[in-house]
Prior knowledge:
Shape: globular
CATH class: Alpha Beta
CATH superfamily: P-loop containing nucleotide triphosphate hydrolases
Number of helices: 9
Strand content: 5-15%
Largest sheet: 5 strands, parallel
Order of helices and strands: EHEHHHEHEHEEHHEH
Radius of gyration: 18 Å
CATH architecture: 3-Layer(aba) Sandwich
Helix content: 40-55%
CATH topology: Rossmann fold
Strand order of the largest sheet: 2-3-1-4-7
Number of domains: 1
Amino acid sequence: MRLVFEGPPGSGKGTQAKRVAEKSGWVHVSTGDLLRDAVRNRTPLGLTVEQVMREGLLVSDATVIDIIDERLAQKDCAKGFILDGFPRTIGQAQALDSILASRNMPLDRVVVFEVPDGAIIERITGRRSCPKCQTPYHVRFVPPKKAGVCDKDGTALVQRPDDMEDRVRTRLAKYHEDTAPVIPFYEKRGLVRKIDGTAAPEQVFKSLERALES
Length: 214
């Protein structure tokens, strides 16, 4: 199947996309992962988008479209893929239509993970991680045994700049302004299936499986 997963940042779409990919063998295509890899590897693209990402803003449509076009051209995507974090604008959705039409690869479903802004802010701002071993924590949902300290090596936990509340609110505002209109774009074609993203991860996955079968 060829899928698009939509939803606000922190809605769980990436986690569920990885799980579906592991079970199905379809390729998980995350624009965020592709961009972070470029920044980490100091590629020309990475150097271009690093400052934009640091400020919690969205990378230009043209840049992201080129990345997706290149990734979908790879052979492993022929058996099926899950687009996670793309398209984020109507322009990107239209470009994706053109890319897929040129390869005779129409979309099968667009799954929307619905989570209120308040829950998103709590989820993201509570994230912490160990800079030494990269173990993730959450101040409420997965707290360390000792507040602010990694259970494994005693290193002080850190919060990513992108997870600070002002950055999260900026990202949510951009989501509502630019990405939310993509949903009715696909609804007109009967592709959209909506899921309650506030449920427990296992329940979300079961709802997702039903959505892909419907």
